[in-house]
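Researcher: We're reviewing a set of sequences before deciding which ones to prioritize for further study. For each one, I'd like a predicted 3D structure that I can look through quickly. This is FAD-binding domain-containing protein. If possible, include the structure in token form so it fits the rest of the review sheet.
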Amino acid sequence: MPIPRFALEDDAAFETKVLISGAGLGGLMLGALLERAGIDFAIYEQADRYIRIGSAMALTANVLPLLDQIGILPMVLEKSKPVEKVECYNEKLKLFLPLQYHHTEKFAGYLARVIPHPNLYDILYSQVPEHKILWGKKIIRIQDDHDGVSIGCTDGTSYRGQVVVGADGAHSGVRESMYKGLNEKGELPRPDKEDVSFNGVCLLGETKVLKADKFPQLRESSSVIQTMGSLQTAETITRWKSQPAGDMCEALKDLPLPCGENLTLQDLMEETSRELLSKIMHEERFFQTWYSGRAVLMGDGERILQR
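Model: Here's the predicted structure for FAD-binding domain-containing protein, in token form for your review sheet.
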């Protein structure tokens, strides 16, 4: 692909203090905080629009105080459910790790919550002025100097600010550009040059509203997280390959569920829209270098826990 010519936007672009790459949960949260602090910012997202992800987020006492502080906890409580216990089963439905969380509210001040990813995204999105989110802006170049930092996007536009934050996920363009510059100067640590390790696959989805007569645990006031053990071990996984989520669904459809009599994963799949099913490749890496000059990384940009 030819390298685009970069043209600076109008003078207003120079007034932006913080350039945020990525309009995910981390980027929106940072934007919400900066908005309240009165610090000018802009968010640049490579996607043309928000893509709904069929997954859920667990919110615990390490983040709930922040949501409370900025005044959005009531909205989160309305769209989420409390988590009082987590049960881990093996593939034979034998419970091997029961965890109780009802006591966390007493010593941490907050009971853990689980919330659909789209609901949390909508809440955070509502806290950021729409004109401060620029869609279709994939950052491919960062130029740091004494007076500020410039970013260049694939569409040929360029923006300038005081600091750039890479909140653009596991495959961060900000990190890639930052590491390229450090590597050329011989300043990138060897561990940060190594490949990311692959350690598993996760099937994610978000069902429609379920009926309590078929899934009796829905009658409980709190949520229950049930984790199934792997059908394979590290020794039996002999190859890695890309595979559509539909193929994975077919392979796992007969996996029994502990949330009702004679239920299998197929029962949940039948209540899930195909566009809300996704397969995630789990990768793991903690990077040593998470800032350089006027660029800093956050979230999966500086630590990869999944792809």
